[in-house]
Amino acid sequence: MPKATDYFIRNRWPWLTVSILLTGMLFVSTTLGWYWYTEQRAAAARQLSLDLLWLEQSIAESLQGNKNTLANWANDLPVSASSKQASTDNALEEFSSRISGMMKENPALLSIDYLDKDGARLAGFPAYTERPERLPPPE
Q1: Fewest CB atoms within 10 Å of the CB: 45, 61, 74, 137?
Q2: Distance CA 97, CA 90 (A)
Q3: What's the predicted TM-score (pTM) here?
Q4: How many other β-carbons are positioned within 10 Å of the β-carbon of residue 112?
């Protein structure tokens, strides 16, 4: 064996230097890896909050659109009971037809009711005689 390799194998300083360098490199790579990991988590959290905000806004927009549509449809309904019975029945039938279509397009809606000034139900979907405490999900 040559003298240089014999010196390298038997002397502890080269091994100590290499182990310190490897330990330092391991520390640096672990620190950089942890920094990368936290950045990825932060980016995922930001994206999740943006997605949640988008979902909230789209639901609010959909509800506002449904509210506006129902308000427009309510303008077609008779205001007082003194209206002609035939036109009232036709208007309520048309309203029921419209809201049944809206309920099919929007499965999140559980019920749409047309109430008089006293809170009595005049028309609505789904059909029931007395409003239940908790409506079942639509089928």
Answers
A1: 137
A2: 10
A3: 0.57
A4: 20
